[in-house]
Design a protein that fits this description.
single chain; 127 residues; alpha+beta; Protein Transport Mog1p, Chain A; two-stranded antiparallel ribbon; 3 helices
């Protein structure tokens, strides 16, 4: 799941992001100061349907993937980290994936390590 999100983030062609939907009606799964939704689209993470959000944070783009709860907790490392710390974090080179549980879903926040907000900075959706 995290590797899938990293691969999607690292292989995205920013010039071909989907056209924005009616963004005024879209609620981000997680928000933080200076975060602005650019576009949202349907994709797959871990072989299952997911909702993707491209968010501008300063000069950088951070992705959020809202995924099914079963996909989120499929990985035993994620289950253990969430049980112990409330979240899971992994880093590859200068890119970080932060995984957080939502009510009946999971959230992956993917972006440059120095830009991905800490869990304390996030205002998570309440469903």
């Amino acid at each position: 799941m995290a590797q899938d999100a990293l691969a999607k983030y690292n292989n995205i062609d920013y010039t071909t992001l989907p056209a924005p939907e009616q963004l005024s009606k879209v609620k981000l799964p997680a928000n933080w100061p200076n975060a602005h939704l650019l576009v949202t689209w349907k994709t797959e993470i871990g072989g299952e349907a997911a909702q993707a959000y491209a968010v501008r944070s300063g000069r950088h783009i951070v992705f959020q993937y809202r995924i099914d709860e079963a996909v989120f907790f499929r990985n035993p490392d994620v289950r253990q980290a969430v049980a112990s710390n409330g979240n899971y974090r992994t880093q590859t080179n200068a890119t970080t994936v932060l995984a957080l549980p939502l009510q009946d879903a999971g959230l992956l926040v993917v972006g440059p390590t120095d830009i991905v907000p800490s869990p304390k900075q996030l205002m998570l959706e309440s469903i």
